Amino acid sequence: MIAGQIVNGLMVGGLYALVAVGLTLIVGVLHRINFAHTEVFMVGGFVGLVIAQAVPSLPLAMVGAFFVGGILGIVVERISFRNLNSEEASITAALSSLAVGLLMLDLVHHIWGTEPISFPLVNALGSGSFQLFGVRFVPVQGLVLALTLVLVLVLYFVIEKTHTGRNIRAVSDNATAAALLGIPVKFVGQQVFFITSALAAVAGLMFALRVGTVNSDIGITFALKALAVIAIGGMGNLWGAVVGGLLVGLMEAMAVHFGFGRLAELVVWGFMIIVLLVRPQGLFGSVFHGAGARA
Amino acid sequence: MSSDLLLLTTINILMAWSVYIALSAGALTFGASAFMAIGCYVAGILTVKAGLPMLPACFLGAAASGILGFAFGFPALRVRGIYLILTTLGITMSMVVILENIDFVGGTVGLGGMSGATVWHGVGAVLVVGAALWWVSKSPLQRVLDAVREDDEVAASLGLNVVFVKLTAFAVGSAVAGFAGGLYGHYITFVRPDAFNVLISIYAVMFVILGGTNNFWGAALGASIMTILPEQVQVMREWRPTVFALTIIVLLLVRPQGLITKRFLTIRLARKTS
């Protein structure tokens, strides 16, 4: 029973991690918070819904969510971050992206209404369950866990081993020096927004698969917690976001398991406030952020 | 213009001012709806279960909000910039869940039975708070706030108690939000915890940005425009968040440095380490 809860917590934590990784990467590269990120996560589910209603193919829905999410990311970068690039404008840019997120939310409300819509492809994975290491899995859980693992590993590979990733690391380390060395800083920013938003949209689709419905609330009720996760893991720290996401997912599952019910929602914010008080740089510190940001 | 709309407008002006007051000491907060909820629930409990008249209950609600603002603000204001935003977001998100789990105040079902708020209470509150803000803007206190907001390190080196100034501003802002909450509860007569969700806080911040962060007139103007116009124009009523968001986006694009940076230099996401 508790093993089942652990698997469930890891799966939810994996989704937190996918959203948080994107947020933290943007903090690392641009020193900005992208509040539209949570709504891109939400839109991912609706993109999946549209594709699934037209063509009953889950891989196609995933790919569609990936690219639409990525393009939305580039749009957000253009609207909210490109022109607001001075050091003083970071809060302004965050507020602008918040407005973009609000816009996406309202447009989704106008097109699909405010009620959750059931997702057609949930049964395509087959019902029933299988047993692994003495823990029961339903297919959706297996898919979400496996896909999260794959996406995080691919992201690791891209960041650490490819030319693109080297550029991203260079810009996050020192944007001015990177520009002097001929790295196209603006283009790197677009790449980061594409990658992170695409991941968020896919995560949103996986969330829809898990709960069986597409819901316009999840940006605020679920993905917003990823903001707490990046503070817990350390702003700008990729592995902090992954470990923080899994940790928060596990803690929430444990809170539910031990009968705290809805109070489990408090876990992530309480944990964040404690971390910020005791260890302001986050559990894993940060390679990108100096002490001046927190003081 | 109906008196209902006028009362809602005054409540929104108070909410915008609660954000503005904290902001004038350099603390951008997304906690307004949490303190509005505290004020609303404390005042509601006092009138419904303890039988107090409405106005004293609202004042006590505002006081409770201010005291809790002081208590929450103490840890929250140790962090700043983006971390302060996250902490206040956390307070807002947690407050809804906490209220839903207290059966004494009705849990998820909600709290009902308050009544008695008229438009004159709202207008009176706006006049009193507005007069206080006007007095502060003419007094040396404004220079203290300016110093703390623009550069807290310099302010500290001049002997100002930066933490105390920020904390007081945060608590006063919370109290104003609490009073707005009390009025709102006694106007709407029935509230549920999720009426105080994070969107209320986001709107309150956007009122201030829309109107300008430089003075308290701006916040009042932003709140008034965004409350009254949507009721008068059909298209705006249906597309309220869209119109609102587009206005903010365009405003921030046309003034790339943003209205907020003009007197708001120390709030930064990060000073680059290099």
Question: What topology emerges from the helices and strands here?
Answer:
The complex is a heterodimer of chains A (295) and B (274).
Chain A: H1 2-30, H2 37-54, H3 58-81, H4 90-112, E1 117-118, E2 130-132, E3 135-137, H5 139-161, H6 163-173, H7 175-180, H8 185-211, E4 213-214, H9 218-223, H10 225-233, H11 238-257, H12 265-278
Antiparallel strand pairs in A: 1-4, 2-3
Helix pairs in contact in A: 1-5, 1-8, 1-10, 1-11, 2-3, 2-4, 2-8, 3-4, 3-8, 5-6, 5-8, 6-8, 10-11, 10-12, 11-12
Chain B: H1 3-23, H2 32-48, H3 54-76, H4 82-100, E1 111-112, H5 119-138, H6 140-150, H7 152-157, H8 162-188, E2 190-191, H9 198-211, H10 216-232, H11 234-238, H12 240-254
Antiparallel strand pairs in B: 1-2
Helix pairs in contact in B: 1-5, 1-8, 1-9, 1-10, 2-3, 2-4, 2-8, 3-8, 5-8, 9-10
Describe the structure.
The complex is a heterodimer of chains A (295) and B (274). With 295 residues, chain A is mainly α. Chain A has one domain: Orthogonal Bundle (ABC transporter involved in vitamin B12 uptake, BtuC), CATH 1.10.3470. Chain A contains twelve helices and four strands; from the N terminus they run ααααβββααααβαααα. In chain A, a hairpin with a 2-residue loop joins strand 2 and strand 3. Chain A is globular. Chain B is mainly α. Helices cover 71% and strands 1% of the residues of chain B. Chain B contains twelve helices and two strands, in the order H-H-H-H-E-H-H-H-H-E-H-H-H-H. Chain B has helices spanning 3-23, 32-48, 54-76, 82-100, 119-138, 140-150, 152-157, 162-188, 198-211, 216-232, 234-238, 240-254; strands at 111-112, 190-191. A two-stranded antiparallel sheet of chain B has the order 1-2. Chain B is globular and about 50 Å long. Classes of the chains: A mainly alpha (295), B mainly alpha (274). At the A-B interface, helix 4, helix 7, helix 10 and helix 12 of A face helix 4, helix 9 and helix 12 of B.
